[in-house]
Amino acid sequence: MRRILTLLAAWALACGMSIGLSGTGAVPVATGAAGMAPATRGWTVLSAARSLPTLSRPAALAVDSRGNVYVSDTGNHRIVEIAPDGRPLAHFGDADLAPQGASALALSGGGTVYAADSFHRVIRVYSPAHRRIASWPVTIPGARATALAVAVGGAGNVIVVFAPENRCTIPYGPATCATSYVVQRRAPSGRLLGQFRTPVAPFGAPSSIVTQLSVAVNPAGNIYVAAGGREPCYKDCLVYHFLVEHAPGGRVLGHWGADELDPTANWPAVAIGGRGSIFLADDLATRIEKRAPSGRVLARWPTQTIFPAPLECTSEAIAVWQAPSCPGPDGVAVARSGTVYVSDPGSNRILVLSAAGRLLTQWGAGGTAPDRFWFPASVALDPHGQLWVNDMANGRVQSLGADGHFHVRFAVRSPGMGMALDRQGNVYLGQQLANIWHPDVVISKFSPSGTLLARWGNLSMADPPSGIAVAPNGDIVVVAVFLYPPPSQLSVNGANIVRLSPTGKQLALIHLGFFGPGPGIAVDAHENITVAYGTPPHFERYSSSGALLASWGAPKPSLPGQIVPNPAGITLDAAGDVYLADTPQDQVQEYGPSGTLLHVWGRAGSYAGQFHHPGGIAISSNGTIYVSDTENHRMQRLLR
C-alpha cells in the first residue's frame, strides 16, 4: 500500500544531513524558523546511545596499524576514528569536507590520513593528530576531475585516481562526461611523480561514461581500480562494473566485470587483505565479495544472511522520510588481523566481520538489545510520568525505567509511527497485519503489559496512522491516509483526521487534503485537535466536532498531490503551548497558544541537541521535553 501512497503524494528528503558523534559540547548553529537561532545546549542523550558512535551514511573506511578504524561519515561530512572495541575516539575534517564528506580514505604507515574530497576536487591531508596539513588540488589540463579516490602504496607514495570530464561526444550524453580514468602517483608531499590514463572502452564499455571509482594497492605495488558507469541512451541503457589490475607503471594485467542491461553488481569500494586477496563492497547485490589476486571469486557474503538487517532495509519504506530501499555496503577495509570492516549506510552502522565472513559485532547507535532502538517513532508519557517509546523497526515498545535505562515492555507486530497512551496507561498503536498487497491496517489497544484488549479494522486506512491521540473522554483520534472504495467517497480520499469512540465507531472525519501521510496529532483538555503539516509547518486547530478554530504558520498546501514533507510529532503542555518535532527541518519548536514562535532547538547532527529527522515528542508536567531522534536511533531529553 505504500506504493499507492506514493501516487497520492510522493516525497523524499535530501540526504545531506550533518550528523556527528553523540556527546555534548559547543557546536555551530544555523538560523531556524523565523530567523531564530536554534539552541542546542541543555539536551542530553539518554541511556546506551550516550557512549556509542552515531553515524550518518558511513561510506569509505580505512584501518591503521593499531587497528583503529577511520570512517567517512558522509552525512556529517567528517571523519570518525573508532577504536577496535567500538569506542568513538575522535572526529575531524568537518570544517573541510562539507557538503558531501570524503569519497575515499587512505592511511600511511605513520598515521597520516588522506581524504578524497570529490566535491571540491582535492585530496585533504591530515596529520596523525588530525590537523589538516595540506590540500592537493587534482587537475588535468582541459578537463575537470570527478569521482576522486585515493590509496597509499609502497614507500608511502599516494595513489590518486579520478575521472577527467571533457566535452561529451557520446550520443545522448551530457554536455561533459568522463570516458577514462587517470591514475597519479604522488610523493607524501603531494608532488606528482607520474600518471597514466586508461579508457574504459577496451574493457567492454565502448559508449559508457565513468561515474564511480575506487582504488587499492597490493603489497607488490599493483593498483586495482574498481570503475563503474553507464551508457547514455534513449532506452535499454547498459551499465558496467569493472575491476582493473595495473602494474605500478600502468600496464593492464587483468580485468574482471561486465557491461550489462540488467546490472548484477556495483562495486563502490575495493580493499586488499592478507595474501593479496581483494575485497569488493557490492551495494547492488548487497554483499561483500572476496577474490583471489587472479580475480577468481573465493567467497560471497550476502548481507541479508549474515547481517541482522533492521526493518528499514526491506523493499518498502517504514517512514515517510525513508527511501523505499536501503543501499548495500558502501565501504570495506581489512585490518592486519584479517578482520573485515564494512560500512552499512542504510543502517548508519559499521559491521565487523571475521576473516571468514562471520559477523562479530556492529557499531552504531541503533540496535536490537534492550536500551537500543531502530527508528524510534512516537513517544508518550503514562499517568506516572514514565516515558514510553514506539521502537518501530524493532517491533516493540520500550519504557524508561527509574534506573535510567529503557526496558522492553512488549513486542508488537508491524507497528506504524503513531502511538498514544490513555489515562489508564493502555497503549494504542497502528499495525499493518498483512502484506502490502492485501493490507489489514488496524488500530490495536494493549494493556501496559502488552495484553491485546481491543482491535479495530475495516477503517479504510491505507497505512497505519502517523499520529494517534486519546481524548480526555476516551475517544481515539487518528491522522492517516484513507482510501475509500466507494466512488461516492473519492472526495475524502487522502489525509484525514478521524475520531473514533472508545469502542471503535467512527464519530467524525476532517479531510485535510491529498498531501500524504506523516503528521502527528495532539488533543488538549477541551478535546480540541491540533495538527501540523508542510515544510515550513502549517498548523490547524479543530474542535471535537471538526470545526476549524484557528490556523497559523506557513500557508496551507493547496495543490492536490503537492509534495509536502510533514512534521511527525506534536504535543501540548498544560498552558496550551504547542511543541513540534519538525522532522524535515531537524528541529524542535515551541509555539504559544496564539501561534507565536517561542523557542527553536536543534539542527541536523548527532551531538546532544542535534537531530536527524526527529519523529516523536512528549512533555512532562514539569516541562521536561523528550524527543525520539528517529534516524539517529536514540532518545534525547531537555530539562527545563
Question: Features of this protein?
Answer:
5-stranded antiparallel β-sheet; 49 strands; mainly beta; 640 residues; disordered N terminus; 2 helices
* Beta-strand content: 35-45%
Q: Distance between termini?
A: 42 Å
Q: Regarding quaternary structure, how should these chains be classified?
A: single chain
Helix amount: under 10%
Quantity of strands, as a count: 49
**Structural shape:** elongated
Radius of gyration: 26 Å
Structural class: mainly beta
**Biggest sheet details:** 5 strands, antiparallel
Can you give the mean pLDDT? Answer: 86
Task: Report low-confidence residues grouped into runs of 5 or more.
Answer: 1-34, 305-325
Number of helices: 2
